[in-house]
Amino acid sequence: MKGAAVTRACIIVAVWVAAGCSLDREGLRQPGGEAGVPTDAAFDAAFDAQAPDADGFDGGTPSDAGPPGDSGPRPDSGVDPLSMVAVTAGLGHTCALRSDGAVFCWGDDASGQLADGSSGGMSETPSRVPLPEPATALGSGGDFTCAVVRSGSLHCWGGNGSGQLGDGSTTDRPSPVLIVGGAVRAGGGASHGCFVGLSGGGLNDEGQLGVSGGDRSSHEMVAGLSAAGAVTGGALHTCAIAGGQVHCWGGNSEGQLGDDSTSGRSSPEAVAGLSGVTALAAGDLHTCAVHGLGTSCWGKGGDGRLGHGSTSDARLPVLVTGLTDARDVGAGVDHTCALHTDGAVSCWGKNDRSQLGPGTSDGSQSTPVRVPDLNATALAVGGSHACVIQGGEVWCWGRNNKRQLGTAGGDRAAPQRVPGLPE
Question: Around 65, how many Cα atoms within 13 Å sit in the side-chain half-sphere?
Fold first, then answer.
C-alpha cells in the first residue's frame, strides 16, 4: 500500500487481487488486500435469511454463478451468517465484507472512498456500498477500493486522479463503477490498481503497471506472467504470486523488487530464493512474503519495517526474526504486521501513531511484537493503522486522523471494536 498519493490499481483478471492492497483466497490483506467469502451454500443461506428488501442489494438476489475457490464460513461452521469475514484498508479508510456479501466502508471520504454518492469529509459511521449483487472479495489502494461480486465482475470506487480505477477516466467515483467482467480478485497500490488476469491502470512513472510508457486510465495486461494467484502494490512497485514464487516490477529505488539492485523495470521477474509462497504484501517501499521457510521482507528498512533486527535496507529477501508460523502478512507505509496460524497478530516497524498496537506510541520496533489479546481470522494493514476480524467483528488500532478506526477521537494504541457495523 502507498503512503502519500495513491494512484494505481492492479487487477488480476480471471483471478484478481489488490495492494498497498492485496487479496488472496482466505482473507484480505493490506492496503491492501482481498477478503474471501462463503461458499455458494453459505451465501444463499445468509442472503435468504434476510427480509427481501430489508438490507438488500441493488440487483435484488445473488446470481447463480459462485466464486471459484472455497473460503469463508460454511453453513455448519458455527459462524454467524451475518458476521464480518474480511477487511481491507487504504491510506485513511477501511472497508469490511460481511458473510452475506454486503460491503461497508468508513474513514476518509475526500475522494469518494465511502461510496455514498458524494465526496468530501470523513465519517466513523460505516456506509453500505451500493453494489449490484453480493461481493466475494475486496481490495484497496491508497484512496480507492474494489470489489469482485458474485457473478465475477469487478466494481471500484474512490480516488481516480491517475486512472487507478481503470475505467478509462481520471474522474473520482463516489459510487461503484463496473470495471471488468470475469475477475476473481483485485489489488491496488498507492495510485495504481491490478486484477488477476493480470491487468492494471493508473500511475506508471516507474513501470509499475507492467507495461512501458505513461500512465493508463484503462487496464492493460501485464506480459510475461501467467497463472497468478495474488497481486499487491506499493507506492511505485507491484508484485504477484505465480507458481509459488514472487514476481515483481516497477520502481526499485530501495531494493523493493528483491533482485539485488536498485534498478527499476516494467516487466515481471522472479525474486530469487523464495518458493512455496502463500501470502504477499507490499508497503510503501518494501515487500514481504510468507513462504516455506518463514516470512521474508526486502526493500527499505527504515524504522525496522523489514523485521530482521535492523533498520538497514535489503535488496534481497531477509527472514523476519522469529516469525515461523505466519499465515498472512500486511504492510503499511512504514510498518508491517503478520497473522499467525493461531490467530495472534505481530507487528513491527514505525510506531509513531500506535500502529504496532502494544499499548504505546513510543519507539519503532525492528523485530515482531505481539498485539495483545487477539484471536483473529483476517488481517488488513492501512497506511498507519491495522484491522482484524475477530469473533465476526472488526477491530482496529493505530492512526485515526480520518476516523479510519471507525470511531471519533485520536489514535488508538490497543485494538478497539468498530461499533457501527450492522449485524
Answer: 12
